[in-house]
Each structure stands twice: as C-alpha cells, then as structure tokens.
Amino acid sequence: MSDQAERLRSRLKEKHGTKKARTVAVSSGKGGVGKSNFTINFALKLLQQDKKVLIIDMDIGMGNIDILLGVSPKYSFVDLFHHGHSIHDIIESGPENLSYIAGGSGLSDVFQLDQAKFKHFQSQFESILTSFDFILFDMGAGATNDSLNFISAADEAFVVTTPEPTSITDAYAMIKHLVRIDEQLPISILVNRSLKEKSDSSFKRLETVVDRFLMKQVTSLGVIPDDRSVLKSVNRQQPFVLAHPTCKASRAMTDVVDHYLSDYEVEPTFEEVPSFLSKLKRFVFERS
Ligand SMILES: Nc1ncnc2c1ncn2[C@@H]1O[C@H](COP(=O)(O)OP(=O)(O)OP(=O)(O)O)[C@@H](O)[C@H]1O
Ligand SMILES: [Mg+2]
Description:
The chain is 49% helix and 15% strand.
C-alpha cells in the first residue's frame, strides 16, 4: 500500500474511532403538533435498532418528556448550571433504559451563561458526545431568538407539522427563520396526525413553497397517521411504540426510522461542518 493510501486509511479510522453524536433539534411552528410524542417514540425505535440515544427536554418551563415517559426525574437540565452537577448525574433513565435529561428552565439558562459556566457546559457536553449516536432536543413550540439560534446550532432540524393549513403556514415561518440564520442547516419535515397517510400531500405543498420562496431543499422524514392509540398511550403515560407496538402510528414510526437510518448511514461526508458546540458558543457570546 502506498504511503498516501496508508495515511488516508488511518485518517478514516481516526474519524470513525471518534464518532460523535448527531445532534437533532425537533421543532415546530405551531404548538401541540406532536413533537414530544414523536421525539420519544422515534428515540425508542432508534434504540431498538441498537443506536444509543439521549433526549434532552428543551421546552422552557413546560417540559413534559418525564410525564409522557411516566417517570419522576430527580434532576433537570438546570442542575448542570446552578448546582455544579456533572452531566452524567442528570441523565435519567426511562422505559427500555432510554436516556433523557428532564427540562428545567433549560434554554434561557444556556443563553445566559458567562464564559466560565459555558466552559463547564461545553466540557460536560463534550464528554457525552462520544457516548451517544443521537442527541435529540425536544424544543418548545414557536420561535424566540434563543430557540432559533439553538435549533440552528444542531447538526440538523426536524420540523413537525400536521396537515392543517395553520400548522403548515407556521412550519413555513419556522423554516424561513432557520434558513435566515443558516441556509446550510439540513431540515427535514415530519407530517403528523395525517388522515390520509400515503396520499398525504402536506409535504409536497410545503416543499414547493420552501423551494420557490426560500430556495431551500428540505427532506421528508415521513408521515405518521392520526391514531387514537397515541391519545390512549399519553393518558397511560406510556410511549405508543411500547404500549401499542402494532398500531398504525407505531408501524409508521418504524418506517420513518428505517428510512432515516438508511439515509443517515450513507457515509462518510468529509465536508467539515462547524460543531454544535462551536455554533452554540458563537450564539451565546455574540448576542446583542
Ligand atoms: N399521531 C397522533 N395521533 C393522534 N393524536 C396525536 C398524535 N400525535 C399527537 N397527538 C395528540 O396531540 C397531543 C400533543 O402532542 P405533544 O405533546 O407530543 O405535542 P407537542 O408538539 O410536543 O406540544 P408542545 O408544543 O406543547 O410541546 C398528544 O397529547 C396527543 O393527544
Ligand atoms: Mg412538547
């Protein structure tokens, strides 16, 4: 083997040996469209595919991942900043050993950090980046400057919408804000609560306007049907993929995850993109 080939091979090994978690922000324009339920059930399906997943509840003051998982967390995100805990202390475990960090007043805290506190956050966060394949941030609804900056710092954004015109309009507004901050941010759309499933045209409609007016290509994550089993699971505080593994929504979630992983595993890309932490740092210290 030539020296050059050898060097390339060892660089590849190095890159794969230190594989870092992919950070994904799950957002929406309109509230109540199913982000938290999607995040949890998507995470559980990824776990079933042997992926290591961490959910971080970023819904300021209104996080409810713990309620949906039927667990009572001891710690929340805020303990990382105010009580000197390590990130490993505040990672809790839900059904199927799903790792999650409960919401405190998380986001406002992240954006109000001084240099020393950000350094603590950075080192703590770095220490878990190699322990997980995916870190999913369940965002609150709507767009504040802080939440938009946070979402655009992630490696990719999911935008959840229902087929209702109001929800699609708000999803469009969210995408417009995100593209304004970072036109390169990969954005995927999930259509939830569809009454038509396979023939649902919501994605097509949204894709067309985003392409025409924002000149941005978005990807489809898939479609989850409107399913009473979801409501039943919420009431029983059990994720629907566990409580009703063969219901319509669970089967659709399996397709969504299979499709997502088949795209995700088309690697490697050698294009250097700035890391989540470096982008976040820029937003934290360049706020006006
Ligand atoms: N696929 C579905 N089929 C039927 N009902 C659903 C579905 N997805 C979500 N729902 C209903 O919508 C409600 C809100 O879902 P969820 O809490 O996940 O939304 P959210 O986007 O996280 O809300 P928020 O913006 O307040 O964070 C659920 O409690 C459930 O009743
Ligand atoms: Mg929610």
